[in-house]
Amino acid sequence: MGWGQVGQHRKHGEKGGRKVGRHKHLWSYVLRYEPNYFGKTGFKTPQSTRGLNKPNTINIGQLDQLAYKLAQEKQLTKKKGKAYIDLTAHGYQKLLATGKLTKPILVKVNSHSENAAKKIQKAGGQILSKNKTQEKTKKQPQETQKKTTETPKD
What we know:
alpha/beta
């Protein structure tokens, strides 16, 4: 090839468009001047699997606005003399407690927070959920029966 002296052929060559030697003797150059030379690193969760288990939530303040909007459009139904909103039909799975409720509302929802239930009851409304009892059931400890072995007395 005509490389008469040592070093005349170093740092040359072809490796798919990359410069030769970037992983060994030119490593400090890569770290300093071209930190992204080798491309992406790490793992990124695919977009299709993000947020699959998160329920669609609504706050009490947003619920109050929704009730007002439905009343303006005359789409609000009434049960027991109070406004009735089926949040599952509107695409919500959970009711949270941020905000204030100004009027009594009957709400049908899959799940809710304890504070949301308290705020709705304080305003004079009620939550109608699929699980009629959202209260936590406490398991009572089972009484352990002690087996006593009697030794014959002589």
